[in-house]
Each structure stands twice: as structure tokens, then as C-alpha cells.
Amino acid sequence: MQNLERQKRPSARQRREMVRIVVSEMMKLCRNPTKQNTTEIAKRMVTKYPKSFQDVIDGDVIGPGYHSLVKQLQSRVENVKRPDTPKVVKRKAASDHDDDTDEIPAEQKASVQDTYGCVSWEPKYLPLSETVESQLEKKEEMKKLFKKMNYRIDLVKELVKCTYYTQRKDINKGASIQKLCEEWPFLFNEVGMAEHFQELTGVNLIETFLANVDKKGARLLKFLRYVDAQKRKQVLDALLKLQTEKGQSNRCSQEVNEMLLLLLAHFGEKEQLLFRCVEMTSQAEDVEMDDVPPTPFIIVCGSSCFSAETFMLSIDKNIVNDKISSFTSAICLMFGSYFCFNIHYPVELRSTLEFLQRCFFSINPERGTKVESKKKKVLPVNPRVLSLITDIADHEWI
Description:
Elements: H1 2-5, H2 12-29, H3 35-48, H4 50-53, E1 56-57, E2 60-61, H5 67-81, H6 87-100, H7 106-115, H8 132-148, H9 153-162, H10 164-172, H11 177-183, H12 190-201, H13 205-231, H14 233-246, H15 254-267, E3 275-278, E4 297-301, E5 310-315, E6 318-324, H16 327-340, H17 350-359, H18 383-395
Parallel strand pairs: 3-4
Antiparallel strand pairs: 1-2, 4-5, 5-6
Helix pairs in contact: 2-5, 3-5, 8-9, 9-12, 12-16, 13-14, 13-15, 13-16, 14-15
């Protein structure tokens, strides 16, 4: 209580003891507290002592800010109840519960995942100054500008913004990536995708990422290098490998490279599902696409992310941009593609992508998910992402 009154974060041990005491008091009043009960209590605790309990990294609140406390309270309730609950009864209760769940049909679930984090997924009306004919004219103008390569950035931004309505109609009707590449080529380069992403989510794709890397990158890297590497062998192995590769280059995007690779190691997710190295002189037509996943994927032209000078972006096994100049730009385009083209996070990369989404792209929905999942119930914030956020927040006070 002294820590709470002084607006300090309690240690992990103190927090666990507090959870035990709170749950003990709850169960004196009610032998079977529900998730709704624990959520309401966690919400009130965080409201009263935000500095001590809120899920936050460098001042940015993750989700509603109380999910990690709900998770701890709920786990404690389940642990206390477990010895008194016969296994047969538990299985029956679970079966009965399944019958009552409002299972979301596949089509509706896909729609929820597609619209997740979006503020303007499909505009209802054309801009007042636009017609169907003017949209087609602007589309043709953009195709010509793309071929010339010496376009004005402000003009392209204005054209992308004006034709956003028609772009979304084509994307949401399920046009193939190859077709979209032909009809809307600017959607796959930095200028066009950033403008489309801004309209879609209300977030500036490149600037938000760079600002958050400046703000949080050093702290995250420090935690992964000096704390997490001592606990997880896979993080230590990744760190040793990185130290060898980093000697090859002094590129400014080293911090982003290292951050991503250590995050993948922390979550135990495979970098081969996110990017692959090919010969430095490779052209788009030279890249073997058979073993490339259909989800957004980075092709690194060089022996490592640190030494490469060119990157390519592949979506649906099609190379859609073969002239990306930095790893930072490649990460932004890869991530932006998931939202712009209604692509769900693969289960194998769900933790890394959600951590990037919440902490570096500042997209923080309280409900829903972007992950393709067959589960009927999906937590609003990935528990593994939540644990890392909590660990970093707690470490700041040690």
C-alpha cells in the first residue's frame, strides 16, 4: 500500500501477494467469481492506482491498461478453485458451456478480423467532388505517373487520398494482389501505402513507427539484451548471432533489425516466416517463390539484414515491390500490408506482429483480433505480448 500511495510499481513478488489477498477476499463473498467480476475489480484498481498497475510502455497505455491484472486475478481464481472441482464435473461444465457460446460464423469472423483497428474500412460514399468517371481518370493518371518514376510526392498523396473510396471497394471485393498491383501500383510503395494506411487506420505508418522506435526502441533492446537473454537461451543465441552479423555494417536501421530479431527469439517465432536472404544481385524474376509464404514477406538481397542494400516485398507469393532501400521501410510496408489488404496475422507470427502493432504502430483496439484463429474465444490482448509489456514496465522500477 505504501508503494501504491507513492505511485510506485510494486515488485512482481508484491503484486502476486496482493493478487492472492484480493482473490481470497473475493472468494469469501462469492465462491465462484466470474471473468466479469475480476475485470470490474481490476478496472477499479487500475483507475485508483494507474501509475502502479497500468499496462504501459514509456507512457503509452496498451489496450485499456488493465488486462494483465485481469489475467493474474483470473488465473488465481482458477488455481484456488481447481482442487475442489472434480474432473468429470469440469469436463461436463465445459461441454455445456460450448453449447451456449455464440460461435461466430466464419464469414463474420473474417469481417471482424478485416476491420480490426480500422477507422474507415469501407467508406459509404464518394467524396463530394468525385464521380465514378473522375475516379477512373485519376486511376489512369496514377498508372502513368508510376511508370515515369519522377512524380511529385504531394501529387501522389493527393491522388491516393481522392481515390481511397474506389481502392477500398476493389480490395474489399477480393481483387487479387496481382490485379491490385496492375490497377493501383502506388499502393505497394512507401508513399501510396502510407497515405492509404493513414485513411484506413488514422495512423501515420512511417512516422509513427520511427517515433516509437526513438521513444521505446532503446529500452526494449536493453531489456532483451541484458534481462531476457539471461532467462531465455533462444534470445541469448540470437544475440550472439547478431553480434557476428552486425560487424558487417553500420547502417542506421541496425536498431530496428536487432529489435525485430530479438522479439522473434523471445516469442519463439521463426524469422524464416518473415524474411529470407537471397543473393545481393538478385532481381525479382530470379527469386524462387515456391517456399515463400503467402502472407506479407520480406526478401533480403544480401547475406543478412545488416549488410543488405535492397529489400523486396512479397504478398501472396507475388513480388509487389523490388526497390525498397532500407529494412525499416521494408518492415513498415510488410506490416501495413496486413491492414491495407485484409490479411490476417498467421498464428506462427501472432505475438511478434501484435507486439509491433500495439507498441510501435500504436494500433490498440480493446476488442477483436487480427490473428487467424480457430478458437471460439480469443483474448483481446495476446497474453504473451501482455507478459512482455508487464515485464518491461516492472523492470523500469528495479
